[in-house]
Amino acid sequence: xxxxxxxIHMTSRTTDDYAAMAAAGVRAVVEPAFxxxxxxxxxxxxxxxxxxxxxxxxxxxxxxxxxxxxxxALNPKEANDPRCREVLDLVPRYLDKDGVVAVGEIxxxxxxPAEDEVFAAQLALALAxxxxxxxxxxxxxxxxxxxxSLAVVAESGLDPAxxxxxxxxxxxxxxxxxxxxxxxxxxxxxxxxxxxxxxAILREYGTERMLVNSAADWGRSDPLLxxxxxxAMLAAGFDSDEVDRVLWRNPVEFYGQSQRLDLDxxxxxxxxxxxSIMRGGA
Amino acid sequence: xxxxxGSIRWGYGTNGFTNHRLTDALDVIAGLGYTGVxxxxxxxxxxxxxxxxxxxxxxxAARLSALGLSVVVETGARYLLDPYRKHSPTLLDDxxxxxxxxxxxxxxxxxxxxxxxxxxxxGVLPGHVSRRQGWDRLLDGCEQVVKAxxxxxxxxxxxxxxxxxxxxxxxxxxxxxxxxxxxGFGLTLDLGHCRANExxxxxxxxRQAAPYLVNVQVEDMRRGVHEHLEFGAGEIDFPPVLRALAxxxxxxxxxxxxxRHAHAAPEVAxxxxxxxRAASGQPAGQPVGQPVGPPGQRRPDRQPRRAGLAELxxxxxxxxxxxxxxxxxxxxxxxxxxxAEPARIGAFFAAAGRRCGRExxxxxxxxxxxxxxxxxxxxxxxxxxxxxxxxELYRHGDAAERRAVLRALPLLPVGPDAVDxxxxxxxxxxxxxxxxxxGPYARHLDAAAWRQAVLKCVFMxxxxxxxxxxxxxxxxxxxxxxxxxxxxxxAAGRTLPDDAARLLERLEKGN
Lengths: 282, 511
What we know:
The structure holds two protein chains of two kinds.
Chain A: E1 3-5, H1 15-24, E2 26-32, H2 43-54, H3 56-62, E3 67-72, H4 76-79, H5 87-95, E4 100-107, H6 113-129, E5 133-136, H7 142-156, E6 163-166, H8 173-177, E7 182-186, H9 195-205, E8 210-213, H10 225-235, H11 240-256, H12 264-269
Parallel strand pairs in A: 1-2, 2-3, 3-4, 4-5, 5-6, 6-7, 7-8
Helix pairs in contact in A: 9-10, 10-11
Chain B: E1 9-13, H1 22-32, E2 36-40, H2 53-67, E3 70-74, H3 96-113, E4 118-120, H4 131-152, E5 156-158, H5 169-178, E6 185-190, H6 191-197, H7 202-209, E7 213-218, E8 220-222, E9 225-229, H8 238-247, E10 253-256, H9 265-280, H10 304-317, H11 326-340, H12 345-356, H13 369-379, H14 383-395, H15 399-408, H16 419-427, H17 431-436, H18 447-460, H19 470-473, H20 476-491, H21 498-510
Parallel strand pairs in B: 1-2, 1-10, 2-3, 4-5, 5-6, 6-7, 7-10
Antiparallel strand pairs in B: 8-9
Helix pairs in contact in B: 1-2, 1-10, 3-4, 7-8, 10-13, 11-12, 11-13, 12-13, 13-15, 14-15, 18-20, 20-21
């Protein structure tokens, strides 16, 4: 099983996790810029973080044969701190980098006016840089937040096919299914989604435009839940081609829109055979 | 100590650049890193019969000097004297006066260019001329040319050519004896010809010819077939041949002669130099060797900085097949954009890998396409902007961009001011950055920082071949540090990497 984890915060993970992920078949990851638990108080703190996402972290991943990409943005939570607002001016510089494959995570946390403003501004950046966007849906008031996010995306002029609405669940999946946006699901030990619930959603809604991620971070999370989801799919009667579509070809297709994925060497190592490997250009 | 083949000076023959203007050919040849040129006088390359010869010769001499190119003059143009008959007339023909006049002109031009030698051959024996008569004509002609060459102070190199009256080394010796072994009558040896028609190994031919050598040509060839082939396409095992050349004390030019490859001259010339450098154990990227000749004729030393950038430029703007085709066009635009608006370099710098590719450049070993493109972008900045922009690009760069800045530093007019970037890179735990920080620019690191950096390489498993000038700079204190690390490793049941162990051994022997 070859796995592309389209949303994982490796900065918060140990080297042992990389080793376990590589052993489990994880060949590529996308690390979205998000908050770090401890709120930041200046733009400089963000630049060091962003620099790590395009410098140190890819190096660390590379030692385990894992290709590391990032998405860059001012996240909705910290968009509310005026001291961090100047980060918005730094983001475009990072959107030019080889390892940056989307704008994200953007969206809503508490649906404040500041979040509105920063969300819209960064969708415009995605449009201007020809990059997809990764939209985080809020943990509280999720249905309202998802609806509002979809409305802002529709207004932005960005092709829905270049947008993933993430952290969906049984309650919100139906809102997004017919919008043309991609659907992201974070599989978490306790909260968000479990592998079994994910399989049920895939049964009901199919595998098209479906992205499954571990969203593993500094909280209680598990970077191997992508693998566990693949195993649960097989146990539930999905065939290996459908598993490969969800865990590899879908994320490659979505982030491949950046024209910056280069997975030649890692895709070759994958054990899955008999498919047409989709390359993300570049 | 025997001279190493790394000291050979490489040239390229302009008869392999017949689709180029001479000025362009010289620029490309110098740009690729050659230090000499074998100039075949021809109707489009310094035509000895066209008007304003003196002015054109002076202009060419100035250009050669500016480019730091040494020169030998070749006289093998195919249709310069007769538009119908190749190479005609020769010294063996009835109208050999035409050839004699040409050779005298060539000697005079060679003298004015400060050439290291002028070269000629016998010609094919015409059907109606007896062998005896041919030899008489040849002896007479050579006598006259030698006199002219002696008077001008230019060595004459007579070249055996397969199929001609003087076809091999034995023929050259017969001619040499027949002329009375005059001063100034030397040998132009084509190494490929040796493979084609000498019974001895090429290296042995070199050793036998050594006392008479004034000019050497090189290309690959097969036994029995007089066809000038690109390196690798023939049968010659070059390393021993080049070693023999260096060991025999020959200090003249060794010029590539590939007259049938003019359609792809820049690529072929780039590949040829990379091949010859590898075959002679020379590092890539910097011209080596010193010009010869009396002090008054000495060429200024090539600047390694310029040569490095010129090679990168040639490799990227005229890429070998396989590199992405749109890269050169994008890069030209980006270089122009950066020169006009330095502030735009950030976006160009970030995009260079996507636009130019990331493949290793065959013609410039050790450089990848993206690194080379980024180095050129930096070099395109107005000089006053280079240091500041390099610092900004490093500060805001991803790992590949930072690495490119570090690698470009020794090629840029920044002086020692950017050494803080090396300190930053060496502080990281990213092997790519640490290795890139220890190139030629690391000469600006003080001894303590440099030793620590070398030790860090050993510690991190970075090959010490990344360290520029290692043996020159390694000292007792580094030896003591390595010995300490070795003892620590030993205690833990581990060993030093081989290259570090060998370095330690060398340093301890030296003490």
